[in-house]
């Protein structure tokens, strides 16, 4: 049965309907799923959970002791078995699980059978090193198959993993190892980045001078760079694997045993150690991956996120592998050796599903459409976006130049804390609007509320909250349950507070406006940073924009904008005036930026999100807040200089 979500859109609105041939074959074709799941969300999630392999089914679907949830209570499960072993008793065992291309162009293909062998061996290696159920393993690795093998090996023996993005410094790594009290660290000698070997092991050595919990370090040889090996502590992966047995009985885990700890990106402050457990998390990611990406047996799926972020965990590893997908994994950068590397890869591997972030899309826009135009992207059938609000202009560019106007776009709103996507269109059912993540998924209760927790009226904005527990929700902040309660469950009675602001339009569509702390209050009017930024990005001269509110004597706050320009455009006073007028025309005089500062790059987290709080610190002349997750400190230094130089 096929029917579309039945909404009467205004004629002037830009709405993109699912293509009928896409809808007719979509994994989810019946819009009544929203009603069924809405009426009985526990029942809905229990049905989704049944699609996994359980040693023992649960006694109770949900145990909710506000704000602490347990899902599938009494159920016994193993995440690795679901991602690997259960695909072996069909033809799928010979299917490619991971197709890897390294930055230098080297390739590795691992079938599910191969993956099973490698994971089992590494699980035995970890066991031999004394890692048991509940012992934390920190993984500090580049985007190579061994990273996935290490994650699944941990899951196989019940050791929670804690991934630290390979781009983090020794100090950031040290803090995360210490907080998690890791017993073993898995790393590599180095990784490839734009033709250079960037050391990783060296950072581990520095970090470990202050981490007493770590007993062993396993080192994967990636670049062949010379590294120091501490004789009593450090071991080579390839040597250990040579001797390891390929038979490893998986541990029977409780549904609520910890699967992993992951620290948030640090966009708004000091990162939080988010705890995810096994049964509910796996249910959430597997179900949403199948439904949102419309995964089919013969798809080649590429998620560009690093495994060090939640998107890498949920939609590069656990979701797709539990669904038996073929996952493409890429080590390198989008502009090396050329700016069409991504498009070359899509052409070469005939990628069908492509999932990336707005920050990348804006970069591609900045470089211009000639790069994708030179490649055959006809294999693509669906595009995804995650990480930040996608500006309508970027959405349209993605739709036209990458999707060639035939691929649905799924804009997926979610967080490290939510574990899986919460707001996104089901691509066969939900018409999309550029810039809106559309609506809550079935069985998820996201709402936009006012200060008092009342749902806002159509057309108004407020706070994005989640009103009922969901299976893949974080269970706590590692070793800090009070911070869990304070951060997420204290602002609104009985609701999970996301920290994001949003607008609900007249059709009920959700438009994420950015962090509530970033919302600007000009003379008593609330202006969303995302709206002003989208207006700026719409201007043909602008590649990216970050907007903040800085204190202002008369208005309370004034809008301050920072922009980067598209290739070949020069900064001039007329352009600044033009941009200010453009914003005023698009949104209104109140949103007109007081000043616009042109820069070569915006300060971003290492996951690519704009760090507005640092721009605010600069604009208001404060000491900078936590900068440990900043990708490139040079950007901030330059901006500080610019502020000090009178115009
Ligand atoms: P921290 O919590 O440490 O400040 P962070 O919030 O950036 O870091 P993540 O969990 O990686 O860490 O990011 C989740 C946030 O990213 C969301 O709260 C939201 O602000 C933003 N986000 C993610 N996807 C979308 C999307 N599709 N549309 C709008 N915003 C998004
Ligand atoms: Mg956050």
Automatic annotation (TrEMBL):
Keywords, sorted A to Z: Acetylation, ATP-binding, Ligase, Magnesium, Metal-binding, Nucleotide-binding
Residues the entry annotates as binding CoA: 193-196, 311, 523
Binding site for Mg(2+): 537, 539, 542
Residues that hold ATP according to the record: 387-389, 411-416, 500, 515, 526
PTM annotation (N6-acetyllysine): residues: 609
Superkingdom per UniProt: Bacteria
Domain (AMP-binding enzyme C-terminal): residue spans on this chain: 531-609
Cofactor (UniProt): Mg(2+)
GO (cellular component) term, any one: cytosol
GO biological process: acetyl-CoA biosynthetic process from acetate
Pfam families assigned to the protein according to its UniProt record, in alphabetical order: ACAS_N, AMP-binding, AMP-binding_C
Documented EC number(s): 6.2.1.1
Sequence similarity: Belongs to the ATP-dependent AMP-binding enzyme family.
HAMAP family: Ac_CoA_synth (MF_01123)
Function per UniProt: Catalyzes the conversion of acetate into acetyl-CoA (AcCoA), an essential intermediate at the junction of anabolic and catabolic pathways. AcsA undergoes a two-step reaction. In the first half reaction, AcsA combines acetate with ATP to form acetyl-adenylate (AcAMP) intermediate. In the second half reaction, it can then transfer the acetyl group from AcAMP to the sulfhydryl group of CoA, forming the product AcCoA.
Protein name, entry field: Acetyl-coenzyme A synthetase
Organism: Desulforamulus hydrothermalis Lam5 = DSM 18033
Lineage, opening ranks: Bacteria, Bacillati, Bacillota, Clostridia, Eubacteriales
Gene name linked to the record: prpE
């Amino acid at each position: 049965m096929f029917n579309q979500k039945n909404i009467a859109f205004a004629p002037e609105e830009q709405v993109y309907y699912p293509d009928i041939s896409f809808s007719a074959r979509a994994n989810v074709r019946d819009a009544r799923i929203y009603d069924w799941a809405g009426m009985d969300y526990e029942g809905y999630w229990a049905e989704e959970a049944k699609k996994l392999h359980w040693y023992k089914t649960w006694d109770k679907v949900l145990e909710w002791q506000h704000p602490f949830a347990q899902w599938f209570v009494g159920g016994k499960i193993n995440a690795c078995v679901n991602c690997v072993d259960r695909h072996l008793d069909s033809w799928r065992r010979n299917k490619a699980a991971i197709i890897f291309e390294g930055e230098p162009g080297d390739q590795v293909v691992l079938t599910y059978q191969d993956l099973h062998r490698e994971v089992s061996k590494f699980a035995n290696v970890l066991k031999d090193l004394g890692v048991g159920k509940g012992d934390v393993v920190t993984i500090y690795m580049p985007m190579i198959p061994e990273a996935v093998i290490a994650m699944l090996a941990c899951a196989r023996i019940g050791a929670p993993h804690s991934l630290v993005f390979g781009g983090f410094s020794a100090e950031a790594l040290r803090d995360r190892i210490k907080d998690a009290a890791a017993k073993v660290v898995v790393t590599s000698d180095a990784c490839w980045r734009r033709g250079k070997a960037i050391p990783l092991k060296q950072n581990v050595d520095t970090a470990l001078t202050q981490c007493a919990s770590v007993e062993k370090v396993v080192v994967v040889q990636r670049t062949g760079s010379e590294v120091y090996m501490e004789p009593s502590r450090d071991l080579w992966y390839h040597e250990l694997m040579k001797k390891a047995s390929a038979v490893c009985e998986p541990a029977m885990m409780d549904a609520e045993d910890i699967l992993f700890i992951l620290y948030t990106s640090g966009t708004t402050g000091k990162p939080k150690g988010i705890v995810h457990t096994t049964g509910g998390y796996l249910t959430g990611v597997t179900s949403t991956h199948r439904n949102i990406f419309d995964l089919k047996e013969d798809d080649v799926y590429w998620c560009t996120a690093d495994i060090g972020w939640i998107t890498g965990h949920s939609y590069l590893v656990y979701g797709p592998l539990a669904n038996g997908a073929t996952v493409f994994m890429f080590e390198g950068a989008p502009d090396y050796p050329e700016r069409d590397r991504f498009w070359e890869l899509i052409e070469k591997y005939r990628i069908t599903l492509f999932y990336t972030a707005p920050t990348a899309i804006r970069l591609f826009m900045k470089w211009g459409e000639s790069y994708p135009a030179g490649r055959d992207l006809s294999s693509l059938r669906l595009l995804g976006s995650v990480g930040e609000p996608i500006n309508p202009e970027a959405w349209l560019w993605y739709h036209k130049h990458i999707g060639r106007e035939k691929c649905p776009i799924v804009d997926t709103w979610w967080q490290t804390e939510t574990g899986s996507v919460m707001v996104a269109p089901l691509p066969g059912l939900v018409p999309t609007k550029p810039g809106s993540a559309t609506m809550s998924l079935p069985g998820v209760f996201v709402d936009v509320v006012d200060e008092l927790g009342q749902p806002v009226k159509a057309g108004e904005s407020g706070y994005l909250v989640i009103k009922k527990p969901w299976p893949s929700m974080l269970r706590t902040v590692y070793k800090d349950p009070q911070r869990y309660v304070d951060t997420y469950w204290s602002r609104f009675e009985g609701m999970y507070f996301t920290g994001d602001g949003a607008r609900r339009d007249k059709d009920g569509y959700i438009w994420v406006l950015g962090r509530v702390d970033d919302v600007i209050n000009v003379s008593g009017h609330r202006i969303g940073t995302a709206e002003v930024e989208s207006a700026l990005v719409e201007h043909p001269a602008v590649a990216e924009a970050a907007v903040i509110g800085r204190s202002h004597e008369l208005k309370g706050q004034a809008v301050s904008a920072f922009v980067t320009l598209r290739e070949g455009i020069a900064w001039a006073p007329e352009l600044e005036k033009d941009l200010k007028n453009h914003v005023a025309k698009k949104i209104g005089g109140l949103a007109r930026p007081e000043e616009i500062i042109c820069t070569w790059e915006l300060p971003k987290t290492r996951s690519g999100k704009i760090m507005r709080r640092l721009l605010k610190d600069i604009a208001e002349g404060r000491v900078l807040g936590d900068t440990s997750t900043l990708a490139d400190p040079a950007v901030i230094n330059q901006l500080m200089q610019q502020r000090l130089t009178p115009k």
